[in-house]
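Take a look at the protein record below with the fold in mind.
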Amino acid sequence: MSRIGRKPIPIKDVNVTLTDGILKVKGKLGELEMKIHPNIIVEINKDEILVKRPDDSKENRALHGLTRALIYNMVKGVTEGYTKTLEIVGVGYRAELKGNNLLITIGYSHPIYFIPPEGIKLEVPNPNQIKVFGINKELVGLVAAKIRSFRKPEPYKGKGIKYSDEVILRKAGKTAGK
């Protein structure tokens, strides 16, 4: 059995409904929904959700843990939310908010204007830091990766946009020849 798939998902201050194979999770931060694979059985009790599988076929074993993890991420998202923090490293590199949109200056001939998708909130606590917040873990990760892709950190000086917990492996520069 899947160790992750067997763990019950505690639900506190969350409203969970399953109708026609669509699981809806509603909490204080918002509402998320997901289509459940027909082979997976989801049981909703008053204080926990259990995910079960009909047999031990390879596909069902894979879907068992995946479905449980996705439901857990939905429950955590509508109660706490997810945040990714990006740091901008480089002289003259900065970010600022214009309404809900992000204006990034990172060494190109033009500033980059980023419009976040619906359900994502951007914060700029200081000009060298961007915080991406949302209830959908997948969407928060995608938006953070998209912003990072505008100028990935380079290995010589470490300039660019990086995750706050990311470690950049530095390379040695040129050495003087004889």
